[in-house]
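input
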Amino acid sequence: MTGWLPVALLAVPLLGALLLLVSPAVLRPWLRVYGLVVSGVALVLAVVMVATFDYGQAARPQFAVDREWIPGLGIHFHLAVDGISLPLIALTALLTFLCFVYLSWGDARGPGQLLRPRAGGARPRALVFTLLVLEVGMIGTFLALDLLLFFVFFEIVLIPMYFLIAVWGGKGRRSASIKFILYTLLGSVVMLLGLLLVWARTGTLDIVALSQAHGAGMPRAVQILAFVAVGVGLAVKTPMWPLHTWLPDAHTEAPTVGSVLLAGVLLKMGTYGFARIAIPVLPEGAAAVAPWLGAFAVVGIVYGALACLAQRDLKRMIAYSSVGHMGFVLLGFATLTTVGINGALFANVAHGLITGLLFFLAGAIKERYGTADMRALGGGMLATLPHLGSVLTFAAIASLGVPGLAGFWGEMLSLFGAFQPAAGLPRGLFLTFMVIGGLGAVLTAAYFLVMLSRVTHGRPEHAQAVPAIARTGASGVGGWPPDGSALPDSERSEWAGELPGSERSGWAGELPDSERSGWAGESPDSQQAAWAGESPISERVAGAAGPAEGEGGAGGRVLRDIQGYEFAAWVPLIVLILLFGLWPKLLLSLTTPAVQTLLGALS
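output
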């Protein structure tokens, strides 16, 4: 009766994207609210799904739609929701909507200018189109219950995310986007081979039937081979050490909304694949590979923490922290216990909320200061921007796993699962993993405290807070990127031509000539920081306690604390971080029955 809900969740953003292609002239004046409305409708549908879900049958697929897609191959358009996928669908719809809130509101100097067609604009129609197609792929991945359909949605997200980085990213967007697409495509090819092996041995692609069979009909050696192939593809997307090297560059160069969705949803697609496909469909392969998966997980936890201690760029530090947090998720899966996998699924959602908030904050800081270099920021943010500094402190404390906030429960349950792993797994080895993971948790606290001491505490060191990129140039306009007059030819070309001609023409063609003029490769974060008449950071910070913004003339701009559109985008995340931290039963009661069914013979 409610089978229309999954279809509607996919159809709304898909139709929204198609309308942008069919009626560009009609919709162009309304772009600032169009994406907000379409993603808002998708969020309402997700809320309806959450409200009407039968929580007493959380292990059973609900809202099911099962139609033949390609009859000759036995491939079905099979969509449904259970206790594992429901939180991730709601998270995806929420984060996408909040990204549009962040983009659609604000004044001419804020992020809202990205959706305001103007000379030198940032291709707003293409940006809305890209985000809506990305939402289709993300939600479809969590709805799909056919192996090939899952793979199709899993791959759909790669193209829009590539363009999100390549077109609207920072100065190093070319190499970051190419590295992202190469790593993820290669991983997907390996995963496809594993899925085809499962199909060849079982004769079906139905995930529900395969999960209920628990590997029946597949010898142990085949299960191990298939698990490794599928696991490698999922590990690249997660990402798991040592397949993580695309992630820091992608996060650093992506625009704010790109970083939020990449950390908040795309990484979860990899870990979700372990829970939905790899473990229930290939239980003997999972049991054989689990010690190796746990070993890679704890190495990633410690490596991510140590890498964070060495970072100066705030976005890059948050990116490396994701490697460590995803290590806890993989460790929970490696235990093959109800407690451990529950912890992994809880950590999935918590990481999406907390790291999404952290990347929103990093984008806001870069917008104001013109840099994300922690040393160049000069410290003292709690004194100069008390509200922004306070929210950054809250997000950092939540991420390091303080009890009472959402970040605590997932990591604690994953470590507890390692204390008593599934029967047949070497308990001594997993106890070692637990100890190493605990050390990683301590290091996590260390790097976040170091970050806070550099950014939020102490006296503002104005003299050190003037990076070259924020100095006023000859044109009298400060901010980033520069107008090009002071750059050597090599750097000017980096900003002028962000894509090869064939790709650039495909994205530039939707705006009239007057709107394509200006900076061809301008990025969202850079536009947000390009305040006309802006003075160096030291002067802006020094004037924070002085006249109100706009009273100081062309050179008297003052750093702004949290704005209305930022407040609207961040408060839902803060509330959910507190809610799940204080009441973890909300998630655990939803995932536990599904996890018990998922483990099957391994229970």
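quick obs: Residues 102 and 565 are 6 Å apart (CA to CA).
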